[in-house]
Design a protein that fits this description.
The chain is α+β, with helices and mostly antiparallel strands and 546 residues long. It folds into 3 domains: 3-219, no CATH class; 249-427, Sulfite Oxidase, Chain A, domain 2 (Alpha-Beta Complex), CATH 3.90.420.10; 438-545, Immunoglobulin-like, CATH 2.60.40.650. The chain has 13 helices and 19 strands. The chain has helices spanning 3-10, 19-44, 50-61, 64-74, 78-100, 106-125, 135-161, 170-175, 192-219, 224-229, 296-300, 333-340, 363-367; strands spanning 281-286, 292-295, 305-312, 323-332, 348-353, 358-362, 374-379, 382-383, 393-395, 409-415, 438-443, 449-451, 453-462, 468-475, 481-482, 484-485, 495-503, 506-516, 538-545. A hairpin with a 2-residue loop joins strand 7 and strand 8. The longest helix has 28 residues, at 192-219. The radius of gyration is 31 Å and the shape is globular. Bound molecules: the ligand Nc1nc2c(c(=O)[nH]1)N[C@H]1C(S)=C(S)[C@@H](COP(=O)(O)O)O[C@H]1N2 and molybdenum atom. Ligand MTE is lined by residues 263-269, 311, 313, 353, 357, 388, 401-402, 405-408.
């Protein structure tokens, strides 16, 4: 602090910072704060990064219609959109705070402290973070506030550089010599202060970038891919080979087995949890005769079975894409619960992932003979892809993913539906959600133009645990006509259909409905995905051209 800054404080004519400098000071300081927090988080727990913690809390607090909209609109990019949106909001707040601080650094300081407090609260609110994780947002605070004030001071000098400063002797300002020059040294050369501010803020921004990158690198150093690559899975009981004619991919349906890279993904994880197989433990506890703690090797030492299963998401709209089919490799969850000994009265298995997501599954769906409920460790011969739950996830055929398919599984507690509400149940989704019998048109696509005359329409249907017995279509509300079904693989997978249509030129409507093996036929009564799955006939409007 020199005579200059002291005088500016008392001088009512203190010049205001240029807009760009005020905005830059706010932006760079907030960037430095987030970067510092990200690096410290990497050393403790990557999930403690203030940016991620705030994002995760935002996801948890988002009202479900908005979340639903995000999943529907952005699909698998929903998280990217959220992160980008958060970055935008934080940057905008930083710029606004900077602009409000053109005279005094107070508004920016208040914002920096406010952001730090939000970060601390977000970290404390994460169920799976240790208290020590608050060091990360605290690091943001400790860096953000002083950096802002420092940049502000520099910017103020640069602001003063271009204005006429009252000085005891005008010549002193001009030549920088003699009595009274100490207070004009910073702006004796117009533009020097501004250049210094530019250089400093650019350097701080670069350092922040490097710090954030270091945090990203260190946080990702748990080499989960190496852990995956080291694992070889050979099931003791392989799934029967997929028969010829199991799909009509040449007519426009998906392939029967979904490639791992194409398998739909739905979860609340902003950054994918990374647990090495050797670090993985599952605790089975609660209403059991004896607690179990299982390691990955324990699973490998059990009989490994392979089951072909179609998994689908309750947030799928009628006609939506969130269903995929894979050969899951895993161990029988029924056997594990039997070993732990489920105590009478327990009707819910509450499971939790390493990032704190929770799920509740009816015990009876797991314990039914032949339930095929799995602790899955593989998909299509490979260890689970990290985004699909590596090292271990749950799969229960016949139930939507949100009540059965916990990824990155670490905890399983036998409890009751009366005593525990899982993540989505707290957000108004159903406690119990068996998959509804459903069918979808894949060809033609909505509003497609197709040649008039003979035309092959095709799609998929599913009714896990029951099996698909019949799929019918109708054109323009006419009579329902039978379709040809693909070879059935098992009752827990989708089944493809194809139908030869004769289309006059013009605009048409195509509707589809499936009948499952209990004899139930889908009705036209529509239901929204919330609370327990969409219902109704998938309807396509398209045009046949002569
Ligand atoms: N840990 C965790 N597991 C989860 C979820 C989640 O958000 N977190 N989402 C569930 C939902 S809603 C579905 S539909 C399935 C999707 O599994 P997939 O992403 O492998 O297709 O995972 C389930 N398991
Ligand atoms: Mo889901």
């Amino acid at each position: 602090m020199n005579a200059t800054t002291r005088r500016q404080k008392t001088d009512p004519g203190v010049p205001r910072l240029p807009l760009w400098a005020a905005a830059a000071a706010g932006l760079v300081a907030v960037g430095a704060a987030l970067a510092a927090g990200h690096l410290v988080a990497a050393l403790i727990d990557p999930f403690a990064s203030p940016f991620l913690a705030v994002g995760n809390t935002a996801i948890d607090l988002t009202p479900h219609p908005v979340k639903d909209f995000a999943i529907r609109t952005f699909g698998e990019d929903d998280k990217l959109v959220l992160l980008a949106g958060m970055a935008f909001v934080i940057a905008a707040a930083a710029v606004v705070a900077g602009l409000l601080s053109r005279r005094s650094p107070l508004p920016g300081t208040v914002l920096a402290i406010g952001l730090g407090v939000v970060g601390v609260a977000a970290v404390l609110a994460r169920p799976t973070l240790d208290v020590i994780a608050v060091l990360a947002p605290l690091a943001s605070l400790v860096v953000g506030v002083p950096v802002f004030r420092w940049l502000h001071r520099l910017a103020r000098r640069s602001a003063t550089a271009g204005v006429v400063v009252p000085s005891p002797s005008p010549s002193a300002t001009a030549d920088g010599e003699g009595e009274g020059t100490t207070r004009s040294v910073d702006w004796s050369v117009p533009g020097l202060g501004r250049r210094r501010f530019l250089i400093t803020s650019t350097a701080v921004a670069a350092a922040a970038g490097a710090t954030a990158a270091a945090g990203q690198y260190i946080g990702g150093r748990v080499d989960v891919e190496a852990s995956r690559r080291a694992i070889r899975l050979s099931p003791d009981e392989a799934a029967p080979p997929i028969p010829a004619g199991a799909d009509f991919a040449d007519a426009g349906t998906p392939t029967f087995i979904t490639q791992n890279a194409d398998f739909y993904r739905v979860d609340t994880a902003l950054s994918v949890p990374r647990t090495r197989a050797r670090d993985w433990r599952l605790r089975v506890h609660g209403m059991v005769e004896r607690e179990l703690v299982l390691t990955y090797d324990d699973l490998l030492n059990r009989p490994l079975v392979e089951k072909t299963i179609s998994l689908c998401c309750v947030s799928n709209e009628v006609g939506g894409p969130y269903i995929s089919t894979t050969n899951f490799i895993g161990v029988s969850l029924r056997d594990i619960l039997a070993e732990a000994g489920v105590r009478p009265g327990s009707d819910q298995l509450a499971t939790r992932s390493v990032d704190g997501w929770t799920c509740g599954t009816p015990v009876e769906d797991i314990m039914k003979p032949g339930s095929d409920a799995l602790l899955a460790i593989g998909m299509n011969g490979e260890p689970l892809p990290v985004e699909h739950g590596f090292p271990v996830r749950m799969v229960v055929p016949g139930l939507y993913g949100f009540v059965s398919a916990t990824k990155w599984l670490v905890d399983a507690e036998l409890t009751t539906f009366a005593d525990f509400d899982a993540y989505w149940v707290k957000r108004d989704w159903a406690r119990r959600a068996p998959i509804k019998t459903m069918s979808r048109v894949d060809r033609p696509k909505a509003f497609e133009r197709v040649p008039a005359g003979k035309y092959v329409a095709a799609g998929v249907a599913w009714a896990q645990r029951r099996g698909v017995d019949k799929v019918e279509v109708r054109v323009d509300g006419g009579p329902w006509q039978a379709t040809t079904l693909s070879t059935e693989v098992n009752i827990d997978t989708w089944r493809m259909w194809r139908a030869e249509l004769d289309l006059p030129a013009g605009s048409h409507t195509l509707e589809v409905r499936a009948t499952d093996r209990t004899g139930y036929t889908q009705t036209d009564e529509r239901a929204e995905p919330i609370p327990d799955g969409a219902a109704g006939w998938h309807t396509i409007v398209f045009t046949a051209q002569p």
